[in-house]
Amino acid sequence: xxxxxxxxxxxxxxxxxxxxxxxxxxxxxxxxxxxxxxxxxxxxxxxxxxxxxxxxxxxxxxxxxxxxxxxxxxxxxxxxxxxxxxxxxxxxxxxxxxxxxxxxxxxxxxxxxxxxxxxxxxxxxxxxxxxxxxxxxxxxxxxxxxxxxxxxxxxxxxxxxxxxxxxxxxxxxxxxxxxxxxxxxxxxxxxxxxxxxxxxxxxxxxxxxxxxxxxxxxxxxxxxxxxxxxxxxxxxxxxxxxxxxxxxxxxxxxxxxxxxxxxxxxxxxxxxxxxxxxxxxxxxxxxxxxxxxxxxxxxxx
Length: 301
Fold this sequence. Notes:
The protein contains ten helices and 18 strands. The chain starts with a strand and ends in a 5-residue tail after the last strand. It is globular and about 65 Å long. The chain is 26% helix and 26% strand. The chain has a seven-stranded mixed beta sheet with strand order 6-5-4-3-2-1-18. It has a seven-stranded mixed beta sheet with strand order 7-8-9-14-15-16-17. The protein is an alpha/beta fold.
């Protein structure tokens, strides 16, 4: 059975607190691990959360502010120390290539793993695998920043009533799924489209077209809510979102599960984020992210 869940390693914004590590997130998706924004302390948080270097296949950095990228050096060295047996690919804004190079080679170590560098220079697909397509979309922040979206290919859901009407059962169902036709019966006649799951990761940004494009129709949206609504002007000035803004985006996009994260140290009470998200009209599943928690993707409808 495939596992699809978000592992939250850290939820702080620029300044960590006693209870919030710097950013760090891992999406586990059918045996593939995609790490997003490894901030300072990510390697230790991985240990505490039960995430191994062997679990990682991609690293996606939204932008090169320290709370989103200073953990890269340790994570990359751990991947090499543990001799991860598969290639790992790193995605990050192309304008920050020099930052990535500095972090990758911050200290001496022995390289044992093929780490592919795949910088992002424009909106569009970054990788296509049998299990998902990974896309990047530009956001609005004082430095170049991209959000990421993981989309499963659409599949087919078999309809038992129609299968029975055509006398198809047992191994014949599998043959029909594989070949698309069995006798005079096509796959379309006994099935319907099952929309693939969709996940988006939106970090430091003001409201912009990219935020809405990433969120559209997502089963899970992980999105920054650095500020509370009373500080909306401050959020805009610094290139961030408020809890209410993030929730309104999610409500308008039909998001099923909203995960708010990237909290400013000025707000010690996380329940305020939930109150403002609900007041903004989001009525789906809501998680106020906490360090070292696991959040499963919603079941398919």
